[in-house]
Amino acid sequence: MNLHIHSNYSDGRQTITQIVKSAIKLELDYIAITDHFTNSWKAWVSTLNNYETISAYLEEISDCQKYLTKSNKQLSLLKGIEVDLGSSERFIRNYIQIDKFDLILFEYLENYESIAFIRNIIYYWKNKLTDFNKFPVLGLAHFDPSYFLTGNLEILMRFLKKNNIYFEFNSSYPLFYSRKNEFFFKKLKEYQIPVAIGCDSHRLSNLNDIEEPMEMIKYYNLEINFEILLNTLKFLELG
Ligand SMILES: [Zn+2]
């Protein structure tokens, strides 16, 4: 799987269709298109920051999902979005219609305040939903454990567990899953926090960089955590 891919809707090079075609050739089982969403100062790249762009984006992924189902491909495609936690809460509430997405990635979780920020948004989304089955999968994009190794680690773990938020083994940031963070991975195992693989692909050349993350998942004995995520994906209704 590669659950972290950017298309030309933000700072990726390829169109969604090109990414999907490539993923079929690579025989991936799951991919997610997760373009950027932000109104923070980092918003210098083109992002999904208006209704028209977001609906065109979702429609294009939808068309690919329909194609995959119709042609009986083994590949499953998720409608994702990567939410910059530097965005304002109002902006997130206004533009993200939660039942339209299969996956929400949060990026830049670096302190306790950001946990509270995400918690508020999840609470808001859950209250808006009438059909709980439509709630998307949640994950942390390229999360750096070192921010929490000196404090608040238990709080983080309880938060991830309670909200079923996964940790991403991101092949573009191997330092974050290096052995210096071993204690963090022990905690993931203890709490049975789901783990996933994402490559942060901006071009096709690293669409399939999943070998090293998979090895590290095994190295930290997190196969069960990976299984937990796979089970969640299996029961998702895509499209
Ligand atoms: Zn990204």
Number of strands: 7
Described by the principal axes of the CA atoms, the overall outline is globular
- Under the CATH scheme, the architecture is Alpha-Beta Barrel
> Distance between the terminal alpha carbons, to the nearest Å?
18 Å
Helicity, in percent?
40-55%
CATH fold name: TIM Barrel
CATH superfamily: Metal-dependent hydrolases
Helix/sheet category: alpha/beta
Biggest sheet record: 7 strands, parallel
Ligand set:
zinc ion
Number of helices: 8
Oligomer: single chain
Description:
The two termini are 18 Å apart. The chain is α/β, with parallel strands linked by helices. Helix 4 runs parallel beside helix 5 and helix 5 packs across helix 6. It has a single domain, classed as Alpha-Beta Barrel (TIM Barrel), CATH 3.20.20. The mean pLDDT is 95. It is built from eight helices and seven strands, in the order βαβαβαβαβαβαβαα. 40% of the residues lie in helices and 17% in strands. Bound molecules: zinc ion.
Protein topology:
Blueprint: E1 2-5, H1 16-25, E2 30-37, H2 51-70, E3 76-84, H3 89-95, E4 103-107, H4 112-128, E5 137-141, H5 153-163, E6 165-170, H6 182-191, E7 195-198, H7 211-219, H8 223-234
The structure holds zinc ion.
